[in-house]
Description:
- This protein is α+β, with helices and mostly antiparallel strands.
- Helices cover 32% and strands 27% of the residues.
- A five-stranded antiparallel β-sheet has the order 1-3-2-4-5. A two-stranded antiparallel sheet has the order 6-7.
- α1 packs antiparallel against α6, α5 crosses α7 and α6 packs antiparallel against α7.
Amino acid sequence: MPHDRSPMALTPELVALVERMERDPGPPAGEREQTPRELAAMARAVLAGKGDGPLWLFAYGSLIWKPDFVHAAAVRATAAGWHRSFCLRLTRWRGTPEVPALMMALDRGGSCSGIAYLLPDEDHHAQVVRLLLRETDGNPPTNVARWVTVRTADGPQQALAFTASPKGRAYAGRLAHADIARTLAVAAGHWGSAAQYLYNTVSKLEESGIRDRNLWALQALVAEEIRRNHRLTRAA
């Protein structure tokens, strides 16, 4: 559970100062979006690595606050060996080529608490295709689907998760919190702002009883950056 009841420094009012809708610039130069046939092949490859049993999905970011899919159950879960990281530098969705954004993926090391969703038993292929369409960032993707083991109250479960490939073109590596905050305080794209993405994630984690110390510190830094950019006092 969260260790205190202090309010978030990053407020909806501060996020609104960053919020804007940009045009979609499309894939970066030299890249293209996956075709339906490619997505279907990717889904088959993903499911080929699945063991016996139900299909679980591990959510750590936007899949928590905007799941956009049918699920039969949702439980707290922890993925050992992975941590949330703003390690994807993207020029669309919540950024532009002129003002790139940083987005989260699971990166190696540490542990990550999130939500595991139990997906329906029918048509796993179609469900994975839809997840790949939503979560993969390029062609080839830097945010890749991988099977991980998560701990739940009922024991370990194999779950599908989206993880960062260090070899991907969008991989930014481990960045200092101050550098991440400066980016999140200004970036926005045709899906909205990076600050909104952070606010929604931290808010939903807190609502679920999950306090990610790194994200909690980061939201305070982003709030301070927005105040500085807009010449606001701390009380504003």
